[in-house]
UniProtKB/TrEMBL annotation:
<dbReference type="InterPro" id="IPR029058">
    <property type="entry name" value="AB_hydrolase_fold"/>
</dbReference>
<feature type="domain" description="AB hydrolase-1">
    <location>
        <begin position="60"/>
        <end position="191"/>
    </location>
</feature>
<keyword id="KW-0732">Signal</keyword>
<protein>
    <submittedName>
        <fullName>Biphenyl hydrolase like</fullName>
    </submittedName>
</protein>
<dbReference type="GO" id="GO:0017171">
    <property type="term" value="F:serine hydrolase activity"/>
</dbReference>
<feature type="signal peptide">
    <location>
        <begin position="1"/>
        <end position="16"/>
    </location>
</feature>
<dbReference type="Pfam" id="PF00561">
    <property type="entry name" value="Abhydrolase_1"/>
</dbReference>
<dbReference type="InterPro" id="IPR000073">
    <property type="entry name" value="AB_hydrolase_1"/>
</dbReference>
Amino acid sequence: MAPGSVSRLLILACHCVNLPHQPAPGTTGVQLTSTSITSGKVAVNGVHLHYQQTGEGEHAVLLLPGMLGSGETDFGPQIKNLSKKLFTVVAWDPRGYGHSRPPDRDFPVDFFERDAKDAVDLMKTLKFKKVSLLGWSDGGITALIAAAKYPSYISKMVIWGANAYVTDEDEAIYQGIRDVSKWSEKTRKPLETLYGYDYFAKTCEKWVDGIKQFKHLPDGNICRHLLRLVQCPTLIVHGEKDPLVPRFHADFIHERVRGSRLHLMPEGKHNLHLRFANEFNKLAEDFLLEKSP
């Protein structure tokens, strides 16, 4: 969903009556409406991270965006429609993305680990005792690392479009998206609006170089060595028409994350949670609400 769509949602929300949200202690933020969405920035690990928060539920859920993504560009239907009674939903912008700037985004070889620590520390700063994770694409990788490294803090996890290692096939796919001028206008426009063309184009090139680093590590490893450490109930969703992440990546994660579940969406592409938002939201809600055996 484009940033403008979220703004229209916020304006419409002003006409509803609900309990107001207060920004968390220590944040600099603004109450965007009296009802549904709080937006703020909070100091975490030396940077100021931007987040949106909605809902009144006891079950805290963090939405983790993909490459170049932010809460507003990547999760419009989830911020709007996940149950506000059952969940408190937080959508964050990783450092260098969205409104978590400065700093500019960079890609050291440990950038996924850095994002995982930032994400967990953000939620702790916002005073959540435990959280569940919904991670898309790069956000799915970050979620896997967070679940492996901070097992006592993560309740459940839903990931889609993620991979634990990089192959020759992946490298060719990444090279194909390096030049953002070749992207479809529908995909490009929200990010161009958010960043401006120059930052968007430059950061995409830096991302491609950053993700290609893993190809030179043993087995193309990103986080495959951590999968056995994941303890939380995990749902892996995969779109069978995903042009960016081949099916074997979902199978690999499913085979190595103990007790995980794999759900295939035959018509789903990489953005299955946007194109099939109602189906995805119900799938995620049902899984998050399911009682553990």
